[in-house]
Specification:
The protein is an alpha/beta fold. The protein has a single domain, classed as 3-Layer(aba) Sandwich (Rossmann fold). Helix content is 32%, strand content 31%. It contains 6 helices and 13 strands. The strands form 3 sheets. Strands 1, 4, 5, 6, 7, 8, 9, 10 and 11 form a 9-stranded mixed sheet that branches. A two-stranded antiparallel sheet has the order 2-3. A hairpin with a 6-residue loop joins strand 6 and strand 7. The mean pLDDT is 97. The structure holds 1-O-pyrophosphono-5-O-phosphono-alpha-D-ribofuranose and uracil. 1-O-pyrophosphono-5-O-phosphono-alpha-D-ribofuranose binds next to strand 4, strand 6, strand 9, helix 4 and helix 6.
């Protein structure tokens, strides 16, 4: 549901998402299960996030007669922010198999918390695609806002941001820079700590997905 005091944010509230988010947060969850959960939660979010996708009529021949069905109109691209956003791609791609996939490489400098860009490759022409920008964590909002800046500079049009955990600070910062981009989150957490980690959060999403720490 849209958040009253955080413009631009919709928290997708569903029993299965809440259940899987609790498993995801658990510090004892293995890297293998963590990766599977990220993908499953992203897939569950897709149902809500794609609610307003346009469709066009198509003729379908059933075993009995010809009827009119629907197909999703237009091109779709998933754009994960490396590394952790990669974990969300498969789950969404299972529901939208025709989606193309772009990649934006950014890491957060540990001292300044500022995003450092290192890679950018997206399907062309980017402006013809409806984009879903993917990152499990919206902390200060710097990485997602920088990624959206890069996409807009490349000519992007319609775009939504999907995150698993959002901090209020990140939602405000992202919305201030990109009020035209809807943010969908599986959970809205309390705050950031001094090191820029989300509380209660789930730790470092990239490290937990790829087992790097
Ligand atoms: C994490 C996360 C986001 C970013 C969020 O990535 O996946 O991209 O931090 O923080 P922000 O909202 O304050 O910018 P990280 O920089 O740890 O890179 P990684 O995915 O490669 O580990
Ligand atoms: N990035 C993460 O992976 N986790 C946080 O809590 C904040 C930024």
């Amino acid at each position: 549901m849209p958040s009253a005091d955080l413009p631009g944010l919709t928290v997708i509230d569903h029993p299965l998402i809440r259940h899987k988010m609790a498993l995801l947060r658990d510090a004892t969850t293995s890297s293998r299960d963590f990766k599977a959960l990220v993908s499953e939660i992203a897939a569950l979010m897709t149902y809500e996030v794609t609610r307003d996708l346009p469709t066009e009529p198509i003729e379908v021949v059933t075993p009995l007669e010809t009827t009119t069905g629907a197909q999703v109109a237009g091109k779709i691209a998933l754009v994960p922010i490396l590394r952790a956003g990669l974990g969300m791609v498969d789950g969404i791609n299972q529901l939208i198999p025709n989606a193309r996939v772009g990649h934006i490489g950014l890491y957060r400098d540990h001292e300044t918390l500022e995003p450092v860009p290192y890679y950018f490759k997206v399907p062309e022409p980017i402006g013809e695609h409806r984009l879903f920008l993917l990152d499990p964590m919206l902390a200060t909002g710097g990485s997602a806002a920088e990624a959206a800046d890069e996409l807009k500079r490349a000519g992007a049009g319609e775009m939504a941001l999907l995150v698993l955990v959002a901090a209020p600070e990140g939602v405000r910062a992202f919305n201030a820079r990109h009020p035209d981009i809807a943010i969908y989150a599986a959970a809205l957490d309390r705050e950031l700590n001094r090191d820029g980690y989300i509380l209660p959060g789930l730790g470092d999403a990239g490290d937990r997905i790829f087992g790097t720490r």
